[in-house]
Amino acid sequence: MRTRFVIIFPAVSLLCMIFVSCKDNVKNTDLGYAALSEGISAAVSSHAPAFSNYDRLQYIKPGETFELANIKGPAIINHIWLTFNEARPNWLEAGGSANPAEIVLRIYWDGSPEPAVESPLGDFFAAGFGIRNEIISMPVIVEGGDGYNCYWTMPFHKSAKITATNEGDKNVRSFYYQIDYTKVEKLPRNTAYFCAQYRQEFPEKSGQDYLILDAAGKGHYIGTVMSVRSRSPYWFGEGDAKFYIDGEEEPSIWGTGTEDYFLCAWGFNQNMTPYFGCPYKSMDSEEDLGVRFTLYRWHLNDPVRFSKSLKFTIEHTGWMSADETQTGEVDGHVEREDDIATVAFWYQDGQPARFTALPPYKERVLPEIDLIHEGKDLMKNLRHSPGKAELQKGYDWTGDGQILFVPSGNKAWLETDFYVEKEEARGLVIRMTHSNDYGIYRIFIDGVAIPNVPMTIDMDFYAPAENIKIIDLYSGNLMVKDYYLGSTILKTGKHTIRFESVGKNDNS
Question: What architecture does CATH give domain 3-7+12-355?
Fold first, then answer.
């Protein structure tokens, strides 16, 4: 495991899936979705009294569980919409609001004490790691990262209870919701329950495939959301997806790789389609350690059917650099230990048995892999050309502020030392501020200029490069930006990072 060093899809008709053999009030079409012949539409929402614009829950306090709906059946939920205030501080909530990973969504069918759906809200809507992200697909749409919609068909006989729990330490502010459903006279006895279950391993356990679902009973599997953070350089996605149906010792459905299961090829490009997508990718490079992905795959037209049980796993194999392999050579199919979180979606006849426990929120937060050198620490050994250097506080700077250098002449430069305690591969990221009077700089580490193209771990990061990386810090507005410099092996001990001015933007 590694550490990181930090210095449209057009509108479509949405078909709701029920996948049950229905009579009476529900008719199946050849397309596999439910078409109602009779029934009465209804909804439950956060509406306010007439002529009021306060159609929201003002707060869901830390530790509080709010009951969004308790609906009497028989009925079929066909749409859920919700939104809440943004996580960042603003005029509505000075301290910020809970993020999508801190809110847990639970759904209980027909009086069961155990939820059939249990997942962090963001992961349920295919937005992993607590990051607000737009999702455009057939059953799940998150408009602009704020309007959470799902169109999963959810039938029940007697009752449906839906709750939202705030597991964070901040209020969930301005929570709006509406749950649309259809009341029917009755449903067939074998109507399948909609189920969804979150699971994670931070990091993945060595010597065994990652478990996505272990279900007992009769049903069909309909979708996967997977979020991954790389803990090593190189590509993580060589692991095969395996479906063990009805107690098989060997899987009868055995895939060809992680990106293949998610219906992509030769890696992941950020994209969204009706049936699969990669809506979030934190870095352009797929080979840097610390890169994060969120992926979804909906089995709408190809459900995996089972009569007794279904076990769904995926290997966690991929490429590893020479310093991490037993052979001392780059290897393209070895076991990795990345951070992974999943949500399994399926229907089954009867109440599902819990196959995994939901970790509390503090355990769902990705463990820190960054070795961060803040400005206040780098000030201790700061050296520079004539001018003034100080620690500037405020704005969006971490660690008590940024180093502000105001040179008094041309050929300005600034350098400082940082220390590495353990020799290992690291991804180098530098965070820099942009403003309307900032200059243009090139960067050196230990006297060697950073090349323009990020180096991968098997290349010599310090080899002279024809194209030197130039960073223009001019911006019309104050902003902070991260620059990925590459992955390399830094030896134990002292290193020097140096910034040299090469001029200024014409607008500066």
Answer: Sandwich (2.60)
